Amino acid sequence: MPRHILIAALTFGFTVSAHAEPPIPSTLYSAVRDGVLMVRTFDGDGAVLANASAIAVAKERFVTLCRVLDGSDAIRLVDAGGQTVDAFVIARDSGRNLCLLSASVAARILVKTPADVQPRVGARTYALADALGFGVGLTEGVISGLGGGDRGELLQFSAPVSSGSGGGALLDEHGRLLGVIDYRHRDGQNVNFAMPASWVDMIQARDDADTALQSMRDRAPRLARVGDGAALGSLTEEWIRQYPEDADGWVWRALAAGMQGDFVAEEKAWRQAGRQSPGMMEAGLGVAGALLRQQRFSEARDAAISIIRSNPDSSRAWSLLGQAHHGNGGVDEAEAAYRRALALDPWQMPAHLGMVSLAGQRGDHQAAVEGWTRLVRLYPSQIDLRWRLVEALLFSQDGAGAYRLLARLPPEFADSADGLFWRGATSALLGRPQEAIELFRASLAKEPSERARVWAQLGKAYFVLERFPEAIAALREAVKIAPVDPDHRYWLAVALKDGGHHDEAIRINRDLSVAHSKEPRIWRQLGYAQVLAARVPEGIEALERSLVLDPGQPRVWNALMILYRAAGRHADLIRAHANLRSLDAAMAESAYLATIRPYEIRQE
Questions:
Q1: pLDDT of residue 146
Q2: Are 344 and 313 in contact (CB under 8 A)?
Q3: Is 101 exposed, middle or buried (0-12, 13-18, 19+ CB in 10 A)?
Q4: What is the pLDDT of residues 448-472, one digit of tens each?
Q5: Residues 481-496: what's their mean pLDDT?
Q6: What are the φ and ψ backbone dihedral angles of 163, each rounded to 5 degrees?
Q7: Buried b (16+ CB within 10 A) or exposed e, 520-557
Q8: By mean pLDDT, which of 184-188, 286-290, 292-296 is the weakest?
């Protein structure tokens, strides 16, 4: 076929024969680009909730995924020219997650493949969708499987898709519509699914006119979005009472239970969702996650393995398996599972977080920094990840690196409550405590997300300047807000000890030593406080206990040499000196001249 005839055919809807030579991808894209629009959903305040795609299937009629729309207060379509128009749902096939929209915008109607043309495994295919909200683009792959999904009717394809691709078009090599991309089913490396195009014509016939049920579907994501687990729980109780066979009700019931910390009820709800929709992988993953949250790690491992047996490319199942091994102390097995999850899906955040946690366990601060850096690059809009990267840099003592990262932040983040906190923490590490104090106080004036932590760091900054009353007051605030945090109580005891409040410091450290008996720093501070309170024998015993747990503390050995000398315990003095000399020769020499040498002179 001459090229000018082919282009004309493309322009008017691909009415050419299936046997015609397929167009090159750039020509195909030019012809079909206007057939897919971007979808944006918004809440009542105008904030964007989700990005997706929609296919033009008739004049002013578009198909997209229903779940993208649930819980939104406004739906808008954006065409290739950037024009934005309001859209409205006119029919909803909830069972298949397909919604028909009406919008007053012109678009190229995509022609479906003829009913007698069946997709073939290995046939070339294209995904036309709004990936990651950057605009409609085209990716290439093949039909890699038929019969996917719970009902065995989905098309599996390898063309890469991303968040925002849901509702986009899966096209054959002639640009005809094969299916509607369902990003929810994506789990693995280029393991993607689309619903057959024939379903589009059935939406109105299958329209779910149950307004009560749809009201629940709209309210549930709204309540989840604001974190109201109690209200979501009440809603789902009514949902499953009225519609006990609706798997979605049980899914939201599980999520509500999880939000309220009732992980046993969460597990039960996920299991019921699986019974209502046999083969629903989401339910199996939910069960495994609920078992993890109950710290039933062996059962969670078995649940994840069961999913992997039938879905070996499930990155989420591999990630859950890694978490189960991690919880059981299987570090090597956990790392292998996390790596497998990331090989299947580099965007799998729980696997990244697991790898960062393993790095922290090993004390490998550089690996932790690299892990957080990867997450920041993958999810640049999530500012919380940048704070975790700053924290990792501070743990690695890279104050200069943290300062550079913070300096690149836009003012709305740098001057936010959390931004001010992390700037203060960086200033403290760089040896600028007065500057840190000012930043911490500015953070507290703006309601930071970790208020107790800011008070604690403020107390430590005052402590460095030996402003003990202010340090004690700030640390008391931290303990008041988070009384179960042992680190806040530990630092309060340190400030009390150096501020002359020895008895209170002793009481706090004794309580801590019961709950955290294997922490050498607590026994060390207890010993120091007891010595300052003139309870020398008890102080010596506590310091010795600290050294049993961690012999590598030169300052404690030095302190014991002084105490042994005063107590006349010469053999212990010699032993302590030998231990100190193995750790710090210069300190040992100074301690020798102060404690042992005078004794030797008298003997001479």
A1: 84
A2: yes
A3: buried
A4: 999 999 999 999 999 999 999 999 9
A5: 97
A6: -55, 130
A7: bbbbbbbbbbbbbbebeebbbebbbbbbeeeeebbebb
A8: 184-188
DSSP secondary structure of 143-199: EEEEEESTTS-EEEE-S---TT-TT-EEEETTS-EEEEE-GGG--STT-EEEEEGGG
Token pair, residue 469, equals 């009353």
Beta-strand relationship, 61-65 and 74-78: unpaired
CA nearest to 155, candidates 121, 111, 190: 121
CA distances (Å), origin 66, targets 147, 183, 420, 449, 509: 22, 12, 41, 34, 57
Contact 504, 492 (CB under 8 A): no
Cβ contacts of residue 175 below 8 Å, gap of 6+? 10, 14, 23, 28, 31, 32, 110, 111, 126
User: Exposure string (b/e) for 221-256, b if CB count within 10 Å is 16 or more?
Assistant: bbbbeeeebebbbebbeebbeebeebbbbbbbbbbb
CA distance linking residue 596 with residue 72, whole number of Å: 78
**Spatial separation of the C-alpha atoms in residues 308 and 14, rounded to whole Å:** 41
Check: pTM over 0.85? Answer yes or no.
Answer: no
User: Average pLDDT, whole number, for the chain?
Assistant: 91
Q: At 447, which helix (H) or strand (E)? A: none
